[in-house]
Write a structure and sequence with these properties.
globular, single chain, Thiaminase-2/PQQC, 249 residues, Heme Oxygenase, Chain A, EC 1.3.3.11, Pyrroloquinoline-quinone synthase, mainly alpha
């Protein structure tokens, strides 16, 4: 017997409660003010790679969708990140954060210093959405169920603990507090409506679990490379690289 819609939604939410990256030690370091300036910079550089690939992931999804109504609704996600004539977009807001922490935005946008594990994890997510059934591709996005909480914590923690934090540098997170609930309300209903067999529910739950692994592995990579004892892999960002010239911030 297929579990009820409510039971399936509870299952999805439990995945977040157990596996979302707000439970990761690096998350607590960052929000608690225990990261060094270089550890914050490493996080900004690597998280940018994830942010920059989100609209590419959504474009890959749209290329497979036959339903024009679904395409119309989904493409707002690309606009939220890439921007429009009226909205600068999340990517530009993230680069403003990069500048606030002392990084050259052009260096960050080049993705030169991204950790190999970050690149592999993020690219795997883009490939997942490009290749898996649409139900699983949408289900993987449902980490947005848990995002508003982490964004609110991030705003509070960064403002309390870091000199660079202000309304301008944290604009990305403030905007996501408005954007993510809209996206997840649609995505959650879409998945709940279509996961009407046990097999489909299992596949959707596995997709959401995969996405939590993508996010968790990025923080594992940061911890391994930049938290004592630091083990920075070849080609990844080293402290002192990619900084703004004095007076340029």
């Amino acid at each position: 017997m297929t579990p009820t819609r409510d039971a399936f939604e509870a299952r999805l939410r439990q995945i977040g409660a157990e596996r979302y990256h707000d439970r990761h030690p690096f998350h607590h370091m960052l929000h608690g003010g225990h990261c060094t300036p270089d550890q914050v910079r490493a996080w900004v550089i690597n998280r940018y790679y994830y942010q920059s690939r989100i609209p590419m992931k959504d474009a890959a999804f749209l290329s497979r969708v036959d339903d024009p109504d679904l395409r119309r609704i989904w493409r707002s996600r690309i606009e939220d990140h890439d921007g429009t004539a009226e909205n600068e977009g999340g990517i530009r807001r993230w680069l403003r954060l990069a500048q606030a922490v002392g990084l050259d935005p052009d260096y960050v946008a080049s993705a030169q210093g991204v950790l190999p594990a970050t690149r592999f994890a993020v690219d795997a997510y883009v490939a997942f959405v490009r290749e898996k059934p649409l139900l699983e591709a949408v289900a993987a996005s449902l980490t947005e169920l848990f995002a508003p909480k982490i964004h609110a914590q991030r705003i509070e923690g960064l403002l309390a603990n870091y000199a660079f934090a202000d309304d301008s540098s944290l604009a990305y997170f403030r905007n996501r507090l408005k954007e993510a609930p809209k996206d997840v309300a649609f995505g959650l209903k879409w998945v709940l409506d279509r996961a009407d067999t046990t097999e489909k529910q299992d596949a959707a739950a596995a997709a959401l679990t995969f996405k939590t692994d993508v996010l968790w592995s990025q923080l594992d990579a940061l911890s391994s490379a930049y938290v004592d004892p630091a083990r920075i892999p070849p080609g990844a960002w080293h402290p002192g690289e990619g900084l703004l010239a004095k007076g340029a911030a």
